[in-house]
Amino acid sequence: METGIVIKPMRIYIPEEDIVDLHYRLRHTRWVSPMEDATWEDGTSGEYLRDLAAYWLSGYNWREREARLNKFDHYQATIGDSQLHFIHAKGEGPDPIPLLLMQGWPGSFVQLLPLIPLLTAARTDGTPSFDVVAMSMPGYPFSSIPRKHGMNFKRIADLIVPLMTEGLGYERFACRGSDQGALVQQQIGLHYPERVIGLHRSGITPFMSPMPADLSEAEVAYQQKVAAWAPTETLYARIQALRPETLTPALADSPVGLASWFIEKFQRWGDGGEQIDQHFGRDELLDNISLHWFTGAGAAAIRSYKEAVSGTVLNPEKPPRVAVPSAIMMPLHDGVTVPAPREWAERTYNVQRWTIMEQGGHFPEWEVPGVIAADVRQFFGDRNGTITG
User: Fold this and answer.
1) CB of 311 within 8 A of CB of 303?
2) DSSP reduced 3-state for 345
3) CB under 8 Å to 312, separation ≥6 — which residues?
4) Closest CA to 141 of 176, 100, 106
5) Which of 330, 361, 359 is nearest to 343 (CA)?
6) Is-contact 362 179, C-beta < 8 A?
7) Which has the closest alpha carbon to 156: 131, 139, 177, 141?
8) CA neighbours within 13 Å on the CB side: how many for 293?
9) In a domain, 43, yes or no
10) What is the distance of C-alpha 195 from the center of its chain?
11) Among 192, 194, 179, 175, which residue's Cα sits nearest to residue 99?
């Protein structure tokens, strides 16, 4: 575990020359000739992307958005040779529960912002409020960009636990995560169970190696759906996991290229269909993309896929099971995966709460923050960390 932690407050400020450079690149984008009969099934809509780029150049005001982002309290922690960005939002009312909040790709802390005030607000219904620590993983905006192999989910967990305990003084804390954030928290639950009140996540990893021989009927049907879905819907991950450095120059050099790579995921994985702007908010989508662009995280964050695959964290001979109490929300409209049955999740988690999400997709903190907040409050309702509901 890392020692020697230095925490400093920070404010987001992007140099003016970086904004000018972004506008120059947007203004001089080399556009391909559009396909007349293309749909979102062919990839990011060229018509939508042109309109978004035009708004990014002429309608979107970074300085105004930057001021909005700075309404939250931002910090950077130096741990060894790594730096982690996080937002620290203190809970109202008596004895708020410390909560580590994390998301994954292609999001950023922007994905978590709608959820934070719902968790910190004082409650009158008997459920708790939370001290929220919204953490940015290495490779994400304002955290350090790894330049050597080895920054897998276990290594990230080894950085976050001392930050939460030694740096911020939380002897035990709750966890809420989605996507890669949930996988890091899984490692925290496996290796630091004494530090964890409980784990709350959405979705579940559909792959397991080796595949168990005692699958239930529901699990067999689930794996049949996964087998049909995986060859097409995981191709992006295969590219990012196999040879990410082939893709990183394009994501680092072209803001429109970065936007195109990201936006397709929000359209396909979210629960808004083609109504992306209405579902997520156009300015909010550009907040996320702009942060990835300005910090270089848009290129760096995809490297985590190779680190996850090349390590032994996700593919041990016998997948370990998280023993700490866990809550899982299973979204029915997450386009990146197939809804799993509870017994599949119970193979790797001590599932004490199971919730089917009728609304919301892969970015639930952004899409349905009220639903997530209510489930988190219910799960962590007992002050001793035992589970209600």
Assistant:
1) no
2) helix
3) none
4) 106
5) 330
6) yes
7) 139
8) 28
9) no
10) 22
11) 175
Q: Are 57 and 86 in contact (CB under 8 A)?
A: no
Low-confidence ranges of the chain (pLDDT < 50): 311-316, 383-389
Angle between helices 46-58 and 255-269 (to 10 degrees): 120
- Could you give the 3-state DSSP secondary structure of residue 278? helix
Place of tokens 């950085």: 159
pTM of the model: 0.94
Per the domain annotation, does 133 fall within a domain?
Answer: yes
How far apart (Å, rounded) are the C-alpha atoms in residues 20 and 63? 12
The C-alpha R_g of the chain, in whole angstroms, comes to 20
Kindly state whether residue 389 falls inside one of the protein's structural domains: no
Q: Is 49 in contact with 256 (CB distance < 8 Å)?
A: yes
Range of the domain at 204: 5-27+50-379
- Tell me what pLDDT residue 309 has: 75
Tokens of 164: 């939460």
Could you tell me which of 239, 76, 75, 82 has the C-alpha nearest to residue 145?
82
Write out the two tokens for 194: 């004494």
Residues 6+ apart with CB under 8 A from 127: 377, 378, 381
Assign residue 129 the CATH number of its domain.
Answer: 3.40.50.1820
How far apart, in whole angstroms, are the C-alpha atoms of residue 132 and residue 122?
A: 13
pLDDT value of position 36 = 85
For the chain, how many structural domains are there in total? 1
